[in-house]
Specification:
Distance between the termini of chain A: 24 Å
Strand content of chain A: 5-15%
Helix content of chain A: 40-55%
Low-confidence stretches of chain A: none
Shape of chain B: globular
Number of domains of chain A: 2
Oligomer: heterodimer
Mean pLDDT of chain B: 96
Radius of gyration of chain A: 18 Å
Shape of chain A: globular
Number of strands of chain A: 8
Mean pLDDT of chain A: 96
Largest sheet of chain B: none
Strand order of the largest sheet of chain A: 2-1-3-4
CATH architecture of the largest domain in chain A: 3-Layer(aba) Sandwich
CATH superfamily of the largest domain in chain B: Alpha-helical ferredoxin
Helix content of chain B: 40-55%
CATH architecture of the largest domain in chain B: Orthogonal Bundle
Largest interface: A-B, 45 and 43 residues
Structural class of chain A: alpha/beta
Strand content of chain B: under 5%
Structural class of chain B: mainly alpha
CATH topology of the largest domain in chain B: Fumarate Reductase Iron-sulfur Protein, Chain B, domain 2
Number of helices of chain B: 7
Radius of gyration of chain B: 15 Å
Bound molecules: iron/sulfur cluster
Order of helices and strands of chain B: HHHHHHH
């Protein structure tokens, strides 16, 4: 099957392997990620103010592109997913906001028709974790893995609707499907410090250390994430555990980590 | 509340869609806020101060730039008040003023390193500058 795909600016630069492993793994699972044409940066963070219209147009254009193809819109980066999903929710539920946005849209208006999926949801709901499990060629048996959700995948829960925001399991279920053992830790849904790392490095350092130390104390030997900024903050602030993208683990288990196309 | 305060309050409520009257002053938003230690005014104070029109101190406060947009206060408020949306509206009013950008392109070199993800810079500019 084919889905529309919004990679985002970081996945074209500093997090290029998050994207590569996602594409290769999807192919191995029978899904083609069709990158939408001329996508623009989502802006990194959603702005909740109702009078912020221009800053949301790039997301709406991506959503509309997927709607015209009749495909769901898939993202891998937690931040892109959060921005696009919250924008779509505003288009669907706030007619006044939607009408302002639609003044910028050529031809037909867009009103929130597109299904917005994170790559993890694609694995869980479209492919199915059982099907993922069947395709595993290198079981990750013996690895103890802490899934770090952070904020962006889960909150605000009423909009994101991915999982229970206080007791999520989607990444733990993926870890199990890959043959490894998930390690649940208290800080898995707390903030890493995010963009405040440019404003108050000390605050971000404390938040990131709380997460990394807590995962280590819970007995994990690695941390996985879907967010380039979480990964950056955790590593920069001294995580003793390796912090890797969940797609790398997936590609490894599916036997597509090494590129065979070159 | 004088007329200026009233207008400012109305604008913030319109931008945010928040109704501060719903707040029951339980403090749960501030209790869960990861930026609490570095804030001069905490999320529950944003709610009560906007409600009473005491907005000038918020506009001047560094608390605006410590909020992580983590939405913990939004999800954990038992009354669905959504304090983060007030913080956002006040911050926008602050940075939208001429010359009031909190982060400037010339500040960036000092925070860059070889691994800085693009996401960090676009997010910071979206929150701190107009
Ligand atoms: S958690 Fe909600 S009800 Fe409680 S003080 Fe904060 S805004 Fe008010
Ligand atoms: S969104 Fe901002 S104010 Fe609310 S809990 Fe997070 S850091 Fe605190």
């Amino acid at each position: 099957m084919k889905v529309s795909y919004f990679p985002g600016c970081t996945l074209k630069n500093k997090a290029v392997m998050l994207d590569e492993y996602a594409r290769r793994s999807a192919e191995a699972l029978g899904v083609t990620l069709e990158e939408i044409e001329n996508w623009q940066c989502c802006g990194g963070v959603f702005t909740t103010s109702k009078d912020e219209v221009a800053t949301k147009l790039s997301s709406v254009r991506a959503l509309k592109d997927a709607a015209l193809k009749g495909q769901p819109l898939v993202t891998v980066c937690s931040a892109c997913h959060n921005v696009i999903k919250q924008t779509n929710y505003a288009m669907l539920t706030d007619p006044e906001f939607a009408s302002k946005v639609n003044r910028y849209m050529a031809e037909e208006p867009y009103n929130g028709e597109t299904q917005v999926l994170h790559y993890l949801e694609l694995l869980r709901d479209t492919v199915g974790f059982d099907a993922v499990k069947e395709k595993v060629v290198n079981s990750l048996k013996g690895k103890k893995i802490a899934a770090y959700y952070g904020c962006l995948l889960l909150r605000p829960a009423g909009v994101m609707q991915m999982d229970d925001p206080e007791n999520p399991r989607i990444m733990e279920d993926l870890i199990r499907a890959l043959g490894a053992e998930p390690v649940v830790f208290a800080n898995r849904n707390e903030c890493c410090g995010g963009y405040v790392t440019v404003e108050s490095p000390a605050l971000a350092a404390r938040k990131s250390a709380d997460v990394a130390d807590n995962a280590k104390a819970a007995g994990a030997d690695m941390i996985i994430t879907a967010c380039p900024l979480c990964r950056y903050n955790l590593i920069k602030n001294g995580s003793e555990l390796p912090v890797v993208y969940f797609t790398e683990l997936l590609a490894e288990a599916l036997g597509v980590k090494e590129d065979t196309n070159e | 509340m004088n007329n200026k305060e009233k207008l400012l309050k109305e604008e913030i409520l319109r931008m945010s869609g928040v109704n501060p009257v719903k707040c029951m002053r339980c403090g749960k938003c501030s209790g869960t806020c990861p930026a609490y230690d570095e804030m001069e005014y905490h999320p529950h104070q944003f709610v009560s101060m906007v409600e009473s029109g005491d907005i000038e101190p918020l506009l001047e406060s560094k608390s605006l730039y410590r909020c992580l947009t983590c939405f913990a206060c939004v999800d954990r408020c038992p009354r669905n008040v959504e304090p983060a949306k007030l913080v956002e509206a006040v911050r926008l009013l602050a940075v939208r003023k001429q010359g009031a950008n909190h982060l400037k392109p010339e500040d960036v070199a000092a925070v860059l390193d070889d691994d800085t993800p693009q996401q960090l810079l676009v997010s910071a500019f979206r929150k701190y500058a107009k």
